[in-house]
Design brief:
mainly beta, Jelly Rolls, 49% strand
């Protein structure tokens, strides 16, 4: 809103304040994790649920625009006689607090994605299945009616439930399960308190090879390790200067195992000086030389503290581990007036579809509309989608920020076996600040970007497609000239059997609610996932490469990105840059296409879904006009009127 008048006394800048009024935020909550014992899992055809968790949004006049569950599970890992996973149900419930209350995942008020009569995965004799399921829960009555805490302390208690059924045997069908809830909402910009989610990478402190580790560990660790002796150590600092109260905190940490045969992989974490541990098990009873990326989501880890350098110890049993790494998440409340922290995503999409070994690079043009920007961490989330041969591999990674020279090469080792269930291997590569990269990046403005480039080289052509997302966590002092806003929205979940090859799915409505039209999409991507299986008489996947695509383009998808199958059910994901396909219009839904070629084999396909990730910039700079002035704080107007415009949107 502009204030146009003459004769102001007191502090004034050279333009009039233009408030965004309503603005938006996306936050994430840990919703639960289950892991089997290694000798037993949860039974199928039984209603299971995680413990309840709390949802608090600190702002006032909150309107929930989109909420969805990210649910991941390993199934059929203990037996070759389960038969097809013939159906599943995911539920969500929220209840209003304060007072004694707890979400009831199977109660009368729940919302559910009921695909109990649709085959999720066809059983394959060479291994189990790993599946990601997305569920839009925006319609849950209590959640949809929630208007935020607004200083009252009101919150919701929520719970997630799940049910899976196999055709033949349901005993110990569920080997592990985990979930988180993502909420995007609008709120009154004048709110005194805010909620926020920040992410920080874990950084391996292994001293070799040169250069030193930068995020994920470059070297492997041999079979087993001993706590407080030779287990890998990761450093991190969850830097949040404005922190007030914790709402949800967790770590997502994983690695890739090799040579475990039928031995389960048990891994876990603890915070040094406080050795209470949390563990997670990758079930490997079926053997077949199956190696996998496996990742635990650990909440309530004893000893965690904000704004403190800490060391996280990663321990494991069962075969050599590669690409060990992860991230720390926290959702919290804070004062809206303090120096603030923000994590934004600049997805850069596909660097190579798998056909090119060298010369793979992609860039993001990074802008900051805020003032007083200080980069705390900048890193890449890198997804490598599989390979065909049991052998030692490596991926070479470097980066370039603005006018700073390209960095040294980091070499990340991995050694998959011949059969892999989770084909997407993750590398968390932290951009070094040794040569002034963070200062260079912080110099980006609302109109003058800094280009950040990722360069990747495959060891050989057996390594498939590679895609990435640039993450930046930074603090800033002022949003008066504008800001970045980064979001994740539900972008569709297939409701057809787990061997489908083509889906057109509607995304949630986009959220860009500010009243001004000075908005620019800075980056956007679909994070698409594929859980591949086959419905032939023996359900045996072929060994051919699975080619996939995802897009918002009106011209549709064209399978080009190389995933893999390795002759078994497999899971992989990738980032598809869709920046050009998004507009700045609020409330627009998009048709997202998800396709695969079924490894060019009849009856093969996938369960498919996607998350729409985007970051936009809002500018609050008005046109240059010497007759416009900005009022800040208590300002005396000639004639004796005093206005506190930080608490008022009244026009003059």
């Amino acid at each position: 809103m502009k204030f146009e008048f003459s004769g102001v006394e007191g502090y004034a800048e050279d333009w009039a304040y233009n408030s965004p009024g309503t603005r938006a935020r996306t936050v994430t909550f840990f919703a639960g994790q289950y892991t089997g014992t290694g000798s037993a899992g949860q039974d199928g055809a039984v209603s299971q649920s995680f413990s309840s968790f709390n949802i608090e949004l600190a702002e006032r006049e909150v309107v929930i625009k989109n909420a969805f569950i990210i649910f991941e599970t390993q199934l059929m890992g203990m037996s070759t006689t389960d038969g097809n996973v013939s159906g599943h149900v995911i539920t969500f419930d929220a209840d209003t607090c304060p007072g004694t209350c707890a979400g009831d995942a199977w109660g009368s008020g729940k919302v559910s994605d009921d695909q109990s009569a649709t085959v999720l995965q066809y059983e394959d004799t060479t291994g189990g299945a790993y599946v990601r399921i997305l569920v839009d829960v925006s319609s849950e009555i209590q959640l949809a009616a929630y208007t935020g805490a607004g200083g009252t302390g009101n919150y919701l208690s929520a719970a997630v439930g799940y049910w899976f059924k196999a055709v033949t045997t349901n005993a110990s069908l569920i080997n592990s399960a985990k979930a988180k809830l993502v909420i995007t909402y609008t709120y009154d910009d004048a709110s005194n308190s805010i909620s926020n989610t920040v992410v920080y990478p874990l950084e391996s402190n292994n001293a070799t090879p040169t250069p030193d580790d930068s995020g994920s560990r470059q070297d492997s660790q041999t079979t087993d390790c001993s706590v407080d002796s030779n287990c890998p150590i990761f450093e991190y600092k969850t830097n949040i200067p404005e922190f007030s109260q914790k709402t949800s905190q967790w770590f997502e940490v994983g690695s890739f195992n090799d040579g475990n045969s039928a031995n389960d992989v048990k891994h876990g974490i603890n915070i040094q000086e406080n050795n209470a541990s949390s563990s997670f098990i990758l079930e490997a009873a079926e053997g077949s030389g199956q190696g996998n990326w496996s990742e635990g989501w650990y909440s309530g880890v004893s000893g965690f503290s904000e704004n403190t350098y800490q060391e996280l110890e990663y321990y494991f049993t069962g075969s050599s581990q590669y690409l060990m790494g992860g991230e720390a998440y926290e959702t919290y409340t804070a004062s809206a007036s303090d120096t603030r922290t923000r994590t934004v995503s600049y997805p850069i999409g596909v660097l190579t579809n798998g056909s090119v070994i060298t010369g793979n690079s992609a860039s993001a043009s990074v802008y900051f509309a805020e003032t007083g920007v200080s980069i705390k961490k900048a890193w890449f989330r890198i997804l490598i989608a599989g390979q065909d041969t049991d052998a030692a591999y490596y991926e070479t990674i470097s980066s370039k920020v603005g006018d700073i020279a390209e960095s040294s090469n980091w070499v990340y080792d991995f050694n998959p076996p011949g059969t892999v269930m989770v084909e997407s291997f993750k590398i968390f590569h932290v951009i070094s600040s040794a040569s002034g990269e963070y200062g260079e990046l912080a110099a980006a403005t609302a109109t003058s970007p800094k280009v950040v480039t990722l360069i990747a080289t495959h060891y050989n052509a057996n390594i498939r497609g590679l895609s990435a997302e640039l993450m930046i966590t930074y603090t800033y002092t002022d949003e008066d000239y504008g800001y970045l806003s980064s979001h994740q929205l539900f972008a569709g979940q297939s409701a057809t059997a787990g061997n489908d090859t083509s889906e057109a799915l509607t995304t949630a409505n986009s959220v860009l609610p500010e009243s001004t039209d000075a908005k620019t999409i800075r980056a956007a991507a679909l994070k698409a996932s594929y859980s591949v299986s086959c419905s032939t008489s023996n359900n045996a996947m072929s060994t051919a490469v699975v080619n996939v695509d995802a897009d918002l383009s009106a011209s549709g998808c064209a399978n080009a990105f190389d995933g893999d199958s390795d002759g078994a059910n497999s899971f992989f994901e990738f980032y598809k840059n869709v920046t050009s396909g998004m507009t700045v219009y609020d409330g627009r839904s998009y048709s997202a296409c998800y396709t695969n070629d079924g490894a060019s084999t009849a009856n093969e396909g996938a369960k498919m879904n996607g998350i729409l990730i985007y970051t936009y910039q809002l500018d609050l700079r008005p046109p240059s006009d010497p007759n416009l002035i900005r009022i800040k704080g208590n300002t005396r107007i000639k004639g004796g009127t005093r206005l506190n415009l930080e608490d008022s949107t009244e026009a003059i």
